[in-house]
Amino acid sequence: MAVQQWESPSFRQGWMSKKSWREAEPGDVFKFLARSEVANPLVFVDELDKPPMKASGGNSPDDSLLALLEETSNGSFRDEYLGIELDASMFAWVFAGNSLKLPDPLLSRLTVFNIEAPSRDEVRLIGQCCMRQTLKRFKLNEGAFSAELPTETLDMLSVLTPREVRLVTRAGMGHALVAGRKELTPQDIAAARGERVGRPKQAAGFMR
After folding, report:
1. Measured distance CA(169)–CA(172) in Å, rounded
2. In angstroms, rounded to a whole number, what is the distance separating the alpha carbons of residues 144 and 134?
3. Could you give the CA distance from residue 146 to residue 141 in angstroms, rounded to a whole number?
4. Which of 94, 109, 126, 201 has its CA 20 to 30 A from that of 42?
């Protein structure tokens, strides 16, 4: 089975393109079907609870999502850019989000599973996994930096969210390398967390 992951709301905006819009292109559903070798892919859409942008004319991208989830309409889903109908009836959908603040018509088409936040012991395992992934990403071997995290470091990571663990682990490894250490210590985690908490927000700028 082919698997595709999309971020919402960008994905929900991506299937609404019309040929007359500037920089319009075929929708994500067509592009995935065109690349896939199967007609029954598994599609994972993250952050479903984040609202999408309004489409041109005031229509909501969620109107198209409802059509894709409805058995009576997903077999003839229309790509507005190409002007053709696509058979998305075999798609298997998995959505993820941080809350159930969704439109009632959308929520009524979903089977909801509540997943508890990881325990501190589970976050320790996540921290150890993030450390190994970071070393692999930056192509650092065991001789350059230790893949095993000390117990004290894992204890500090265990109170964070999985996303914070990933970010703090990477930043902390930078602190350790600058200091000449080959192991991620509580001192490095504290420095990385201090940067994230104390970093001032920067104003956005634009050029033309």
Report:
1. 5
2. 13
3. 8
4. 126
Using DSSP bridges, classify how beta strands 77-79 and 84-86 pair: parallel, antiparallel or unpaired: antiparallel
d(CA 172, CA 158): 15
Residue 45 identity (one-letter amino acid): V
For 200, the token pair is: 């001032």
In whole angstroms, give the CA distance from residue 169 to residue 130.
Answer: 7
Q: Where are the alpha helices (DSSP H) in 108-208?
A: 120-137, 151-157, 162-178, 186-198
**What count of other Cβ atoms lies within 10 Å of the Cβ of residue 101?**
11
Q: Which of 123, 174, 166 is nearest to 145 (CA)?
A: 174
Q: In whole angstroms, what is the distance from residue 127 CA to residue 151 CA?
A: 11
User: Where do the domains of the chain lie?
Assistant: 3-107, 120-198
pLDDT in tens, 120-172: 999 999 999 999 999 999 888 768 899 999 999 999 999 999 999 999 999 99
Distance CA 17, CA 35 (A): 19
The rounded distance, in Å, linking the Cα atoms of 74 and 67 is 6
Structure-model confidence comparison of residues 142 and 44, the more confident one: 44
Interval 66-121: pLDDT, tens: 989 999 999 998 888 888 999 999 999 999 998 899 989 999 999 999 999 999 99
* pTM for the predicted model, two decimal places: 0.68
